[in-house]
């Protein structure tokens, strides 16, 4: 059995009593520090700090970089200005998803791709397969740490520590070379929780000092460390997809609910475009919907969903929502059963329980 990988912050986890780590895609990561519900609530009401240094970062530069990224991603890279980021996906020719990712435009013909930890090797190989001469790629994943400071008080915690005016930083924009506890960082207004917040990229060796400094600075504002458990319940409530559940090689971006980011009308051709165009023209066969249990029970991933005697899909993610206190799920179902109010049944450990299709996202924060 291969040894689990650890982030640069692993030695600091032990300073928090009650921390519990698990194997997450080959990484030993904290599923919780003080409790999933407490951490979830902190992010919704104050702030939470996540160690997401397991994520992958690839630098892409050189002449033709934009054309290359236009070919391999579904979103329109040409609309980006330096200092902007976009959510996107890599697709196979049949429209299945290699991975979902963020594309940061660092400068002219200079980009950073942020990919899922479990897909780093696969994504790297896929991109190398399609990379033209003249485009350079560097895998900076091992040397890069990533902290996510999320919640309504995130800006109040971070602003006193940096010279940049964070109030002027719009969502999916970023600032480079920001000093934070002596470290040079890239700070972006992005996240995976449905809340306001920031993601902080920095050199791996600088991460412990920044992590400790942020927690100390934010303690009076209610900032606490948060783990994978709360990250999952938070992203679920906001209907943010998880690769391997809502998106996969067998689930297209149109089926998985991120069709908005698929720019079929962009001038550049891209891998998977023909298949996705055909899927859209013919009508997407399956759709990701929200379901709420009518009978008492909690939908879990891979539980079958039925209409009458026919299995029409399965649950991709489900739990009792910590914010809403309702038993909710995301399910990939045949499109004919995707209308709001449609009653279905979920097979919960061999017992068919009633549920209905409801609107998503389940949670949407109030904008200032």
From TrEMBL:
GO molecular function: aminomethyltransferase activity; transaminase activity
Record keywords, A-Z: Aminotransferase, Transferase
Residues bound to substrate: 199
Top-level EC class: transferase
Catalytic activity entry: N(6)-[(R)-S(8)-aminomethyldihydrolipoyl]-L-lysyl-[protein] + (6S)-5,6,7,8-tetrahydrofolate = N(6)-[(R)-dihydrolipoyl]-L-lysyl-[protein] + (6R)-5,10-methylene-5,6,7,8-tetrahydrofolate + NH4(+)
Domain GCVT N-terminal: residue ranges: 17-266
Keyword check for Transferase: yes
Transmembrane regions listed in the UniProt entry: none
Domain Aminomethyltransferase C-terminal: 286-364
EC number: 2.1.2.10
GO cellular component, one term: cytosol
HAMAP family assigned to the protein according to its UniProt record, in alphabetical order: GcvT
Function description: The glycine cleavage system catalyzes the degradation of glycine.
Family membership: Belongs to the GcvT family.
Protein name per its UniProtKB record: Aminomethyltransferase
Organism: Paenibacillus rhizosphaerae
Lineage, top ranks: Bacteria, Bacillati, Bacillota, Bacilli, Bacillales
């Amino acid at each position: 059995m291969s040894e689990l990988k650890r982030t640069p912050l692993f030695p600091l986890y032990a300073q928090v009593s009650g921390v519990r780590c698990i194997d997450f895609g080959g990484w030993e990561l904290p599923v919780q520090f003080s409790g999933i519900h407490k951490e979830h609530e902190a992010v919704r009401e104050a702030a939470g700090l996540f160690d997401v240094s397991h994520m992958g970062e690839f630098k892409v530069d050189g002449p033709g970089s934009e054309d290359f990224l236009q070919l391999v991603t579904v979103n329109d890279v040409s609309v980006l200005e330096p200092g902007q980021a976009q959510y996107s996906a890599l697709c196979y020719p049949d429209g299945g998803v290699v991975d979902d990712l963020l594309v940061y435009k660092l400068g002219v013909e200079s980009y950073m791709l942020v990919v899922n930890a479990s897909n780093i090797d696969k994504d790297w190989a896929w991109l190398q397969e399609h990379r033209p001469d003249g485009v350079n790629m560097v895998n900076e994943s091992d040397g890069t740490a990533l902290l996510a400071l999320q919640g309504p008080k995130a800006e109040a915690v971070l602003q006193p520590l940096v010279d940049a005016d964070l109030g002027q930083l719009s969502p999916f924009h970023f600032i480079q070379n920001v000093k934070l506890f002596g470290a040079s960082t890239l700070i972006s207004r992005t996240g995976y929780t449905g809340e306001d917040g920031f993601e902080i990229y920095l050199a791996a060796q600088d991460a412990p000092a920044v992590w400790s400094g942020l927690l100390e600075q934010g303690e009076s504002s209610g900032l606490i460390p948060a783990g994978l458990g709360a990250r999952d319940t938070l992203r679920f409530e906001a209907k943010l997809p998880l690769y391997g559940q809502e998106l996969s090689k067998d689930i297209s971006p149109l089926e998985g609910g991120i069709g908005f980011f698929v720019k079929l009308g962009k001038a550049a051709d891209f891998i998977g475009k023909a298949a996705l165009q055909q899927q859209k023209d013919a009508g997407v066969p399956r759709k990701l919907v929200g379901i709420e249990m009518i009978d008492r029970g909690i939908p879990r991933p891979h539980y079958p969903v039925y209409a009458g005697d026919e299995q029409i899909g399965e649950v991709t993610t489900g739990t009792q929502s910590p914010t809403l206190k309702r038993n909710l799920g995301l399910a990939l179902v045949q499109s004919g059963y995707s209308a709001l109010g449609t009653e279905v049944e979920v097979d919960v450990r061999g017992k068919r329980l009633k549920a209905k299709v409801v609107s998503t996202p389940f949670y949407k924060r109030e904008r200032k």
